[in-house]
Amino acid sequence: MKKLILLTIFPVLIFASSAQSIVSNVCSECHGTKMDESGMGVSMAPNTLTQAEILTALQGYRDGTRSEYGMGSTMNEKVSEFSDSELEELSKYIPTL
Question: What SS3 state is found at 75?
Fold first, then answer.
């Protein structure tokens, strides 16, 4: 029974800690720790967007195909090294803040 509980809880902890770490170390600089601030006073607060909107935006910024609010190069610099799975984790985590 203990193993079943650990197997159920462990992936959730990994998901939260990875996305939480990225938000704390990368995103919070412009968007705040709760992702409730607009970047440079021009964008929408990320935690007001849906998971799908966040994922689409992050993938576009990472791939260099998006430049909303003139922040394309800044956002590309911040997210260019993240994998699809990391961006998906972020897109699920941010709306919970």
Answer: helix
pLDDT in tens, 38-49: 988 888 999 999
Q: How far apart are CA 95 and CA 97, in angstroms?
A: 6
Top CATH class of 2-96 equals: mainly alpha
Residue written as tokens 């705040």? Answer: 32
Gap between the Cα atoms of 71 and 19, Å rounded:
22
Say what the pTM is: 0.80
The residue extents of the domains of the chain are 2-96
Write the pLDDT tens digit of every residue in 55-80: 999 999 999 999 988 899 999 999 99
